[in-house]
Design goal:
With 148 residues, the protein is an alpha/beta fold. It is globular, with a radius of gyration of 14 Å. It starts with 5 loop residues before the first strand and ends in a 7-residue tail after the last helix. The chain has 5 helices and 5 strands, in the order E-H-E-H-E-H-E-H-E-H.
């Protein structure tokens, strides 16, 4: 990572789930900045730098997007599809982080080129371990051409 903090965009409508995810990321001690948006429309505004996110300082390009599927205003599948169809965004790894074990959701996510699909465990210890491993893989071990 060349010493720069990784930028993570967390797209999660449930405040309790968002707080648990951010706590797990912080507990894993992965150098990063976490940006949280609470619905699909806000995620699109952040990623496409519209409205309150028009200033690049308010919407730095994430190195990793953690995306819930069940979102208000615009669901996660639509957000994922827009990301992967965008020339500016399609290279950003997107990890679906959801409670859905639906085969349909899984198939649709991969048909829209998701990089990984993870089902949130109920146990916080298991969830924390999953987040730690996820962070190390996508932000430390995995090589990105734009990160060096």
């Amino acid at each position: 990572m060349k010493g720069n903090p990784a930028e993570i965009l967390l797209v999660e409508d449930e405040a309790a789930h968002a707080m648990l995810t951010m706590r797990a990321i912080e507990d894993a001690k992965i150098a990063n900045e976490i940006h949280w948006v609470a619905d699909g429309e806000e995620a699109m505004n952040y990623l496409f730098r519209r409205g309150e996110y028009a200033d690049k300082k308010k919407s730095p390009r994430p190195d990793l997007i953690l995306l819930d599927l069940r979102l208000p205003k615009l669901d996660g599948h639509e957000v994922l599809k827009a990301i992967k169809e965008s020339g500016d965004l399609k290279h950003i790894p997107v990890v679906v982080l959801t409670t859905s074990e639906s085969e349909g959701d899984l198939a649709m996510a991969y048909s829209n080129y998701v990089n990984s699909y993870l089902v949130k465990p109920i146990d916080f210890g298991e969830f924390s371990e999953m987040i730690r491993e996820l962070g190390f893989y996508w932000l430390i071990w995995n090589r990105h051409p734009w990160r060096g």
